[in-house]
Specification:
The complex is a heterodimer. Chain A is α/β, with parallel strands linked by helices. Chain A has four domains: about 220 residues, Rossmann fold (3-Layer(aba) Sandwich), CATH 3.40.50; about 90 residues, Elongation Factor Tu (Ef-tu), domain 3; about 110 residues, Elongation Factor Tu (Ef-tu), domain 3 (Beta Barrel), CATH 2.40.30; about 180 residues, Rossmann fold (3-Layer(aba) Sandwich). Chain A is built from 19 helices and 27 strands. The N terminus of chain A is likely disordered. Chain B has two domains: about 230 residues, Rossmann fold (3-Layer(aba) Sandwich); about 80 residues, no CATH class. In chain B, about 30% of the residues lie in helices and about 15% in strands. Chain B has nine helices and twelve strands. The two termini of chain B are about 35 Å apart. The chains are: A alpha/beta, B alpha/beta.
Chain lengths: ~625, ~350
């Protein structure tokens, strides 16, 4: 290899160098704006490319380059083979380069349809953004979209790279016009630190070196700007009140009980009086432990283990906060939510949310509106689909310690997870806590469910009949009610059709409306259980998630899921209401079994195969099960 | 790299023309050419814990955060540990993450049988020192009982996949830590920190989840597992600087030593149980070191006089070959080699 020898004196190098910070930034723009050329050039100029990569680049440039055999930097940031072959873009790629002053991680988000999702992902970890625009085109809708998203994600430092200046003869007028337009717009949407850089990524003007073709420009080069962007953490997070997110309880033996986690804000000091949120208990930081020795203080970003002077209740997900300025605790918020998955996030459906180091139950109300990322306009919305940004009230099933997103990314953000597929459906940012969440507590009633049940001589329960339209749910439910009534039990039937005429008459048959309909039914059934009744719910209820949700609303042992299992062709042949025929003709859309999915229950309490049992037998099987469950 | 941000007079130190120009004229009048100082982060021996302003502290803290998330959310994690530099670094970070408690999960080594003695000796010593549990999956066992077949070229790197996946299934591992870094290769630039694998260990780009903030989604169905890459955001320079800063011991073959080698496929290979030179290949004694540790049949040595960490850092700075390109024959098989193997469950 014959490598030249360089002497590195570790100590001396250390003495000479100031500390090198790490800046994560995002680049926004399409290939047409010259984004790949820009990133490629930054990598190339910072000399993190090696001979073999350069050889590939030279070969590729000749083979498929767009620059007539000259080095085509865009090829350096080319993606996965699958992507190249199939023309699909996957999402965010991370690139690395460094100068003497800083290490950089670039989140490179290819454009196209998934733009919002990808940009939100890349921006979530970024402290600065470089937005590209084409000098010939100026500030376009796309430029505004990028700025909106950057602002939404709380990025404070933005550079507008006005690229392809070579194609407008390095005109100062063009540059000034675009700069003014953009700065005015950025100011309006809350971005105050804006730099505009006249650039040609292809020729390298003002990327790394100041260009003598723009003598009228006195500002920094793009790299110069990146090297000097304030690292947000330096200032705000250091001065804020200290918070430590507990990830893991460190308990190697009975002598040592520490809480391992990361400082998310401020400086935590030995001797600090602290509170373990969401609880009220307080203690004092006795030790800050690391393998390199105990510390007197731990600053934002540090991963440490703390020991408290008292045995108080702290577990994974707790937030240890300075006692005189603790974070707030709440369980209902207004939030911005970005749809991240091909499956919509549906209001009312039960999901999980991960916030800090806790995973909790989550539901969203109907969106107040969604935001048109191109214009900032508010639009109506029923669900939150992929690449949509909506504002909605959301509910966690337990109180959590939080900060508003604009104050803390780490304590103000959450992700929404599907309980069944485990997919990440949404990305959320807390705007503020809803006042009612802190104040509304359940009325403690002296005559309670058990008292009512005792009076009636049976336990309350929900018997939930699910199955295709025409499966025979109502028939069986009716027979069950007759049997129970004959035994002196207090019952009530909630029937799909009846509820549709009243309580849910405002709802249609889209997936979102079905979910809301079932949410209402489940809530009503749950209230009736509180009233001491045996509630028979007869409902197609095609989705497992909603059936599970209904189950969760009542206590263990109070829910009996009855699957009336009739094959589709049998149900369709019966077609008592003529609905299948309508659906097949196309007169009825979103019809379960025809053009809308039915998810079969996995573990129902009672599975009625109607090809084997007649309705009387089925009803008897349900009553027998209720006896087994101790309901009657 | 010296980059001026304030003016345009001094462009002499910036390379704009091509890869050959990696030297500059000395300004002290001697006019002797020497390699330009690289642009990697400096070595910061006293980096302390200020993750806000210090690159290595930030990377360390992020990696520790990732280890603790996995400990908090998974039932049976395991660390892939070969004794190589990246996995040694990984283990070092795990020890720091849980200290004073011991690392709460075992190590797994997929052993090709084509090992360097120094590395195996090092591996076993480290495991004993820290009281860890090591699971070894020997490729040889899979060949012996017919589940795998030796390749015509004798290389066993591609054979690691099956024993790895079988071991994950057998032990029920649900999180598997690897030392992969995004800077290594283009296909890895898009890899997640938590990378979901299906029940066959396969990676489907379409099923990968968006990763936002520091909120990792580790949820998975029974039989699926998640590969976790705490070093995702490290570069090769970071790894070496951190090894220097933390004084992490590595197997001796990472440093220059005399060895009998022969030249094949553009690499210096060494004789071993995997075979040796053909008749037309001359064995010479050279001062060499290894930049990666893999299957001995296809891991090449580079000529080097670097006997200390500082020497190695200097050499890395001056080097113009990425470590995989330089010394791993199997990455050269095709441009998309890495991605193909990732799909089938290799890292």
């Amino acid at each position: 290899m014959g490598q030249p020898q360089v002497q590195v004196d570790l100590e001396a190098e250390l003495a000479e160098q100031e500390r090198v910070g790490l800046l994560r930034f995002i680049t926004c723009g399409s290939v047409d704006d010259g984004k790949s050329s820009l990133i490629g050039r930054l990598l190339y100029e910072s000399k993190l490319l090696y001979t073999d990569q350069l050889e590939v680049l030279e070969a590729d440039s000749k083979k498929v380059g767009t620059r007539g055999g000259e080095l085509d930097f865009a090829l350096l940031v080319d993606g996965l083979a699958a992507e190249r072959e199939q023309g699909i873009t996957i999402d965010v790629a991370y690139r690395f380069f460094a100068t003497d002053r800083r290490r950089f991680i670039v989140a490179d988000t290819p454009g196209h349809e998934q733009y919002t999702r990808n940009m939100v992902t890349g921006a979530s970890m970024s402290e600065a953004a470089v937005i590209l625009c084409d000098a010939r085109k100026g500030v376009l809708t796309q430029t505004r979209r990028h700025a909106h998203l950057v602002s939404l994600l709380g990025i404070k430092h933005v550079a507008l790279a006005i690229n392809k200046l070579d194609l407008v003869d390095y005109s100062q007028d063009v540059f000034d016009k675009i700069s003014e337009d953009f700065k005015a717009f950025a100011h309006d949407i809350g971005i105050h630190d804006v730099a505009c850089v006249p650039m040609s990524a292809v020729f390298g003007d003002n990327v790394v070196t100041s260009s003598d073709r723009t003598p009228w420009y006195q500002g920094p080069t793009l790299l110069g700007w990146l090297e000097n962007v304030e690292l947000t953490r330096d200032e705000e997070d250091l001065s804020g009140p200290a918070r430590l997110l507990v990830q893991w309880v460190n308990r190697p033996n009975s002598e040592f009980r520490g809480f391992s986690g990361r400082v998310l804000a401020g400086v935590l000091r030995k001797g600090d009086r602290v509170r373990a949120l969401p609880g009220e208990a307080e203690s004092t930081i006795e030790r800050i432990v690391t393998m390199d020795g105990d510390l007197d203080e731990a600053v934002v970003g540090a991963s440490v283990t703390v020991v408290l002077s008292d045995e108080i209740d702290v577990s994974r997900g707790s937030v240890i906060a300075v006692a005189d300025e603790p974070a707030d605790v709440a369980n209902a918020f207004q939030a911005h939510i970005v749809g991240m998955d091909a499956h919509d996030l549906v209001p009312g459906r039960h999901y999980l949310a991960k916030i800090g180091a806790r995973t909790v139950g989550f539901t969203a109300d109907h969106p107040k509106y969604r935001i048109d990322v191109d214009t900032g306009a508010h639009l109506p919305a029923k669900t939150i689909g992929l690449n949509e940004i909506a504002v909605a009230n959301v509910h966690f099933d337990v109180p959590v310690a939080y900060e508003e997103f604009k104050r803390s990314r780490d304590l103000g953000s959450f992700i929404v997870l599907d309980r069944l597929s485990n997919a990440t459906l949404g990305a959320g940012m807390i705007d503020f806590a809803l006042r009612r969440s802190a104040n509304v507590t359940w009325q403690a009633l002296t005559v309670d469910k058990q008292a009512r049940a005792a009076q009636k001589g049976h336990q309350p329960a929900v018997v939930w009949f699910t199955g295709l339209s025409g499966a025979g749910k109502s028939t069986v439910a009716d027979l069950v009610e007759k049997q129970l009534h004959a035994q002196g039990k207090h019952t009530f039937v909630l029937d799909g059709d009846n509820v549709r005429h009243g309580l849910s008459k405002d709802l249609g048959f889209t997936d979102a409306d079905r979910v809301e309909n079932i949410r209402r039914i489940a809530e009503v059934a749950s209230l009736m259980v509180d009233a001491g009744l045996i509630v028979l719910v007869s409902f197609i209820s095609p989705f497992q998630a909603e059936r599970d949700q209904a189950r969760e609303l009542v206590a263990e042992g109070e829910f009996c899921e009855v699957f009336i299992d009739t094959p589709l062709d049998v149900a369709e042949r019966r077609d008592p209401k003529g609905l299948y025929a309508k659906a097949r003709r196309g007169d009825l859309t979103n019809f379960t079994g025809v053009d809308s999915e039915y998810e079969r229950p996995e573990t129902p309490e009672v599975h009625v195969d109607t090809t084997q049992l007649d309705p009387e037998q089925a009803a008897s099987a349900v009553v027998a099960k209720l006896r087994d469950m101790g309901v009657i | 790299m010296q980059v001026r941000t304030d003016g345009r007079e001094d462009c002499s130190q910036v390379r704009t023309d091509g890869p050959e120009d990696c030297s500059q004229v000395r300004t002290d009048g001697t006019n002797r050419k020497e390699p330009m100082t690289e642009t990697h982060p400096p070595v910061a021996l006293d980096a302390g814990l200020d993750a806000a302003t210090d690159n290595l502290a930030a990377l360390e803290s992020e990696a520790i955060h990732i280890f603790r998330e996995v400990a908090g959310e998974f039932d049976r994690p395991v660390i892939l540990f070969s004794g190589g530099k990246d996995s040694t670094l990984l283990l070092h970070l795990a020890i720091k993450a849980f200290w004073p408690a011991p690392v709460p999960f075992p190590l797994l080594h997929v052993d090709t049988g084509h090992n360097f003695d120094e590395v195996i000796e090092f591996r076993d010593r480290v495991v004993a020192e820290h009281g860890l549990r090591l699971v070894v999956a020997k490729v040889q066992d899979w060949i012996d009982d017919g589940r795998l077949e030796e390749r015509p070229d004798g290389t066993r790197n591609p054979l690691q996949t099956v024993p790895l996946l079988d071991s994950i299934t057998e032990h029920g591992f649900d999180a598997v830590f690897g030392g992969g870094r995004r800077d290594e290769e283009r296909a890895r630039a898009k890899e997640r920190i938590f990378s979901l694998r299906n029940a066959f260990g396969q990676w489907d780009p379409r099923r990968q989840r968006p990763e936002l903030w520091n909120l990792y989604n580790g949820r998975h169905k029974p039989g699926e597992h998640v590969r976790v890459f705490p070093l995702s955001n490290w570069t090769e320079a970071d790894v070496w600087n951190y090894i220097a800063k933390e004084k992490i011991e590595l197997p001796s073959i990472y440093y220059a030593h005399e060895r009998d080698v022969y030249w094949r496929d553009g690499m210096w290979l060494t004789e071993g149980p995997w075979g040796g030179p053909r008749d037309d290949e001359e064995v010479v004694r050279k001062l060499v070191r290894y930049r990666t540790v893999g299957d001995g049949s296809c891991t090449g040595a580079v000529e080097s006089t670097a006997t200390t960490v500082a020497d190695v850092i200097a050499e890395v700075q001056a080097s113009r070959l990425t470590e995989r390109g330089a010394t791993r024959a199997d990455d050269r098989l095709s441009e998309a080699a890495m991605e193909d193997r990732k799909r089938e469950g290799y890292f």
